[in-house]
Structures are given as C-alpha cells and as structure tokens.
Design goal:
Elements: H1 2-15, E1 20-28, H2 38-52, H3 56-67, E2 71-78, H4 81-85, H5 94-107, E3 111-118, H6 125-139, E4 144-149, E5 151-152, E6 156-158, H7 159-175, E7 187-191, E8 212-219, H8 221-229, H9 236-265, E9 269-273, H10 286-293, H11 303-319, H12 339-346, H13 352-358, E10 366-372, H14 377-394, E11 398-405, E12 413-415, E13 422-424, H15 434-438, E14 442-443
Parallel strand pairs: 1-2, 2-3, 3-4, 4-7, 8-9, 10-11
Antiparallel strand pairs: 1-8, 5-6, 6-14, 7-11, 12-13
C-alpha cells in the first residue's frame, strides 16, 4: 500500500504539478585535447565530445519514456576553454566556440557550457583572449554558453576582470541586438563558481573532476507550491517541514534518473543539484511559492526571509535523498524565466535592489534581468562587483546574468523564447560608478578566508 501511494503521488507530481528533471548534463574533460596547433586541438575536442556524448540524448529519452519522468534538457559542460586554447598561441578563440557548437549539434544537446575563464586572482594571456572573444563567439553560435569567474572567498575580487566584463556584456548585447541581445543570456559572471554545476549558462567541467561524469539538476517549484497549498495558515515550522519532505521526494526521482543514465552510458555519476529552477509557464514559479508562504507579492517586505526559509529547507530535504549533492543547490530567482517574478516586476512589487537583497540567501544571483540598453559599462561592472562581494563575504556562489536590451528602455518587454522566457526591462540606479570601477586592482579576500 505504501509503494502504491508513493507511485500515485509521483504520478500526480508529474502530471499536475510539473515535476521534472530539469537537466542531465555530461561533464567532459578536455585537458588531453590541448595542442599547439589550434586546428588539431579543435579536431580533438570535437572527436572527444561526439564520442563520449554520442548516446547521451538517446539514453535520456529512453529513461524518460520508461520511468515517465520528463527530462527537459540534455546538456554538456567542458573544461574551461581558456585552459585548453592557451597552448595554441591564437589571438581569437571564436573558432573554439564554433567547434563546441558543432559538437553540441551533432549529439543533439540544447546547450554546451565551458567557453569560460577563471580570473579571480589574475588574468593570463589566454584568459584575456577568451574574454575578448566572447562577443564574437556568442554572436556566431547557438548552443554555446560562457562564464567568467571574477572572485572567490580565498582570493578576493579581481576588479580588473570586473571592469572588463562590464564592457564585454555591452559588446555582446550589441552584437546580438537583432535577437533582443540574447547573447547576454548565455553569459554569466561568477564569484565562487563551482566546477560541477549542471545548469546553464554557468556550467563548466572542473579540473578536479573525472574524465567524464553525469550531473543531474532536479526542479519542482510547482510540486512545492502544491504541497504548501495543503497547509495554508499553518505555522512557519510546518512550512519548513513540508518543503523538506517534498524536496526529499523530488530529489529521489532525480537520483534514480542520474544513476540509471550513469549506468547505461558507463560514465560515473557525479552530483545531484537540488536547485528549484523555474520556467515561464504558469505553475512552475519560485515567486509563487514565496507568495504561497504568505506574501501578497514577491518583492514585498518579508520576501528575503521567506526565500531564506525555502532555500534552506530545500537543501535539508534534498541532502537526505542523495549521497552526492553539489552544484548550486537552492532556489533560482531568474526574472525572465519565472512568470511570478515577471508579474511582480510589472506590478511594482519587485525592484532591482530587492533582487540584490534576495541573492544573499539563494542561488545564484542577479539572473536573467533585462536592463536598459544604454546602461553604462561601469554600472554593469558595479553590479558585478556588488554581487561578487555578497558571494565572497558570505562564502557562497553568486553571479550576474543581465541583458542590456539594445534599443530598449525601462518598462519595455524583451522576448527570448523557450525556457529563457521574456522580461520587462528593469530600472537601474542612474548615479554613476565610473571612478570606483576605474581604480582596478583587487579587493582583498575577507579575513575569514584565512583558514589554512
């Protein structure tokens, strides 16, 4: 009877509450693909990806059909390209991005992450070339995602990299202006980036990882909201317990899928990422969970506290269901990918500053936020610096993925399509940060980082 109850409960979560496996991501090491001849290196990269990930989509589709659990995305993450392409001496890495794009298309995944650089303490020549290549790379590819890590709790914040990325984001927006500046939706600037993150656009394969691994990201905002609807007006303690119990059930489903994909592909299972990742569809919103907890609208006073409760309870429940929890694990708050967040912005309840406050307690940061196309580079760099400071001081991963929408101003709408959704252009502070950003240098690591 208990087994039948669990089966029926899972069916309900899938059919009515939008439970899904948000992504199965294969991480692939490209360290053995480096070569001084760029063409040879790219040949090796293409061959390795298309060999190891050849059956990824087919196997995931088989498991989805057999278990009846939707697997929304099949993706690949690779070693940061700045570490591989540096051996070539080339001055533009766009060709490497195109190779990744071709390989992703060949195996049928929707995104491939790892056109990345790690510059938290300094910028190598290869890192500099990769950052310079970002506008051309993102404008000339469909599936490639990029990231740059500008700070860590141990190293502090590289303000030279922060300054560079402020301008780079504007350049990417300009080069993809005929597509609502969508290139910026595939570019994340991190602090404390993790190398086992299965979620795009920030995924890359860490250098400490195995040659290939399977990482799984689960999601179920609709399931958690439905569970909370059954305990309305109950104390907060009950809310926390229900979220934990529900997160446990969601994670169990993800663990089952991950282990089965791993077994069939003969690739080690890596981690379960417990993050609640919303979509633009009705009934799949993190904002609506916060409102179910008792807020009139996401963004009002109490939002940060409710989000902290949600984030913590999701982690506590998920950890009990998996031996290997990693990635980001928490609640994402991307504006364009969450219909409740979009409605809160349009209704005036949710502002840019409140979103920044919320990032102190969730995953990952200022995510998928459309801003006016004429926003200054120094202003974007200052946004990155603020978010990096939150991550570095609190020893957590934070990130910025903002889209300066070319030709758009506050209140206009931008449409990206698919899971990337749509968003109102949000107002940003009109006062300048140029003198601060122009200083460059490095913000020292916080005192609590010295634990060796």
């Amino acid at each position: 009877m208990t087994d039948m109850k669990s089966i029926l409960e899972t069916i309900r979560m899938i059919e009515k509450e939008k439970l899904d496996i948000r992504t199965v991501t294969m991480g692939i090491s490209l360290l053995d693909c480096a070569h001084e001849d760029g063409a040879r290196a790219r040949e090796r990269i293409y061959k390795k990806i298309t060999t190891l990930a050849r059956d990824l989509v087919a196997v995931a589709d088989q498991i989805e059909e057999e278990l009846g659990i939707p697997i929304i995305n099949k993706r690949i993450a690779v070693t940061p390209i700045s570490l591989i392409a540096g051996a070539t001496g080339e001055e533009d890495y766009t060709a490497f991005a195109k190779t990744l794009d071709d390989a992703a298309e060949a195996v049928g995944v929707n995104f491939i992450g790892g056109f990345s650089a790690l510059v938290e303490k300094g910028i190598s020549n290869s890192d500099r070339i990769l950052m310079k290549s970002l506008p051309g790379a993102l404008a000339s590819t469909q599936r490639v995602c990029a990231s740059v890590n500008v700070g860590t709790t141990k190293a502090g914040i590289n303000m030279d990299a922060v300054k560079t990325m402020g301008q780079t984001i504007l350049d990417v927006a300009a080069m993809t202006r005929d597509q609502e500046s969508i290139g910026c939706a595939k570019l994340v600037v991190f602090a404390n980036a993790v190398g086992d993150n299965p979620f795009m656009a920030g995924a890359y394969h860490g250098v400490g990882e195995a040659d290939a691994v399977i990482n799984v990201g689960v999601s179920g905002p609709g399931v958690i909201k439905a569970a909370l609807e059954r305990v309305r007006d109950q104390p907060i303690d009950v809310v926390a317990r229900v979220i934990k119990e529900t997160a446990f059930k969601i994670t169990r489903a993800g663990q089952l899928v991950g282990e089965e994909v791993s077994r069939r592909l003969g690739v080690p299972f890596g981690i379960m990422d417990l993050s609640l990742a919303p979509t633009p569809e009705i009934g799949d919103s993190v904002a609506r969970i916060l409102e179910e907890i008792g807020l009139e609208a996401c963004g009002t006073h109490g939002t940060t506290a409710a989000l902290a409760l949600l984030n913590d309870a999701v982690k506590k429940g998920g950890i009990m269901a998996s031996n290997h929890v990693g990635g980001l694990s928490g609640a994402f708050i991307p504006v364009s990918e969450d219909e409740g967040m979009i409605a809160a912005v349009q209704g005036g309840a949710l502002t840019f500053d409140k979103l920044e406050a919320m990032t102190c307690v969730c995953s990952v940061g200022l995510d998928m936020i459309a801003i006016p196309g004429d926003t200054r580079a120094a202003t974007i760099a200052a946004m990155i610096a603020d978010e990096a400071a939150i991550g570095v001081i609190n020893n957590k991963t934070t990130a910025v993925r903002v889209i300066p929408a070319w030709g758009k101003t506050t209140g206009d709408m931008v449409h990206f399509g698919g899971l990337l959704g749509y968003a109102p252009v949000m107002k940003v502070n009109s006062f300048g940060s140029e003198a601060f950003i122009r200083r460059g240098g490095r913000i020292p690591a916080p005192v609590h980082s010295f634990k060796n």
